[in-house]
């Protein structure tokens, strides 16, 4: 730790200068939180399996072998068994991580884009714009989320793109509310008033001065949001509204497994475990980051 | 207090209107000609014209919206394309089953969550706390329908205790029959069908309520009046129950109320897993039959119920919270 004045002189105030960067501080904080550490490891495992699916999968996920239908786990080189077309369940689960992550990340990005923009506008300008945006938020929040997702996909038609769009169009309200609340608090701060006084444009104030200071809560909600979107996709696929064959997601595999629940329970158990494991990872990570950022603000 | 109730009731009007408009617009989200999409490519021009008439698609959009809202106020949600029955009749015939399921799920959630949350808070950082928080975390991470499938595998397939599909007699009717005959058989039979779907639906809410009870209790347990009660020599059991839990209850009631609304949404999936003949299964069947008026009507009824439940929760919150009451 560098000091401007000698420490043994009581008349001089010592001012510590930070050597380590903010990123380094943040990383060391993250390691201190068990929740962030475990959640982070789980998320990393899922991301790596999605990227390296061709290397990890033991079989082609869509290759059918009718002679090997509904095999149990560990039979004939099939780690988790096979489905009723003789397709390897383990390989299908590994490849399924790609779909789940895609839905999670892209739909959260859509929500972020809509929610953050509207939240910034509502919070910064207030007035009738704020009123219209927040009443729209109220209306969207008046629906049970899953019901609205089902209704939207029923109208738009099934398929992964429409699932992503529907989830993105529903979950933006969370971001809008959080960003608006933060902006309303921040815009009274002196440095924002100062920026206004020196003639900074609204655009510059919103994106350079306000937005960076709302990032912590946005990151928390987005991380938890990815988990929520993954479960929502699985649910929609389970109901036959999500991904369509021959593509496959964890939810669709589960829906398929439901038909064989009496003869081949493994088809229902393992894809569900994969969903739970992944969502648990994002939840732990999100909760952990929230605790860290909360304690920092305290 | 009356001003608060009045204000809150007034706020409900634009929300209800917004919900209705959003549900109306759902039909127009269908890509291309909705009538043709609903009927499929092999439909005859006469059929398409008939559906256009039923859905009112030949009018300009603002006229359609006006007619939709006018009919809605009169309780007319349209007619099912597939069954030729008023949508409201269909929805009302299925609603009791969904309400029964959601209500029992909520009871189960509260029975699990309240003791677990209190114990976790009182024994913070003990193994009991860690175990219950771990299960709460699992509860919010697993898809509802997957838990349903696990329960079917264990209790219907392996142990053959509970049926995996369908509904017995309505619970209220079974209660009446049991009281009249003095025979518990009727209630038990109804519960046999109800227990797995209700447990499936209740677990996620239980997880959320547990976390809420825990954090709310932890906040209260640090208050001075708890220390005073302990210092007076009140037995710790009573301190927890009478002094702490009563005050921790306010936010808990809010989340329990909101959970009931969420359970109505969650019921759609649970009903599909267990073949429960409620409004959720009505929606899913209607989607597969492309019976869009039924989808619209059912979504609208649940959304309106959800909005009203939220209002009641808000009013209850104001009623039990002395701070708002005095304002």
Automatic annotation (TrEMBL), chain A:
CDD domains, per the entry: TM_PBP2
Residues that span the membrane, as ranges: 36-57, 99-125, 145-172, 214-244, 264-286
Membrane-protein topology: Multi-pass membrane protein
Compartment annotation: Cell membrane
Keyword rRNA-binding recorded: no
Keywords (A to Z) from UniProt: Cell membrane, Membrane, Transmembrane, Transmembrane helix, Transport
Keyword Chloroplast applies: no
SUPFAM superfamilies tied to this protein: MetI-like (SSF161098)
UniProt xrefs under PROSITE patterns: ABC_TM1
Domain ABC transmembrane type-1 residues, every copy: 97-286
Entries under InterPro entries matching the protein: ABC_transport_permease (IPR053385), BP-dependent_transpt_permease (IPR050366), MetI-like (IPR000515), MetI-like_sf (IPR035906), OppC_N (IPR025966)
PANTHER family: D,D-DIPEPTIDE TRANSPORT SYSTEM PERMEASE PROTEIN DDPC-RELATED, OLIGOPEPTIDE TRANSPORT SYSTEM PERMEASE PROTEIN APPC
Similarity remark: Belongs to the binding-protein-dependent transport system permease family. OppBC subfamily.
Listed name of the protein: ABC transporter permease
TrEMBL record, chain B:
Transmembrane segments: 12-30, 101-122, 134-157, 191-209, 248-269, 299-320
One cellular-component annotation, GO: plasma membrane
Family per record: Belongs to the binding-protein-dependent transport system permease family.
InterPro entries per UniProt: BPD_transp_1_N (IPR045621), MetI-like (IPR000515), MetI-like_sf (IPR035906)
Protein name per the record: ABC transporter permease
Subcellular location, principal: membrane
PROSITE patterns: ABC_TM1
CDD domains from the UniProt entry: TM_PBP2
Species for this entry: Terrihalobacillus insolitus
Bilayer topology annotation: Multi-pass membrane protein
Transmembrane as UniProt keyword: yes
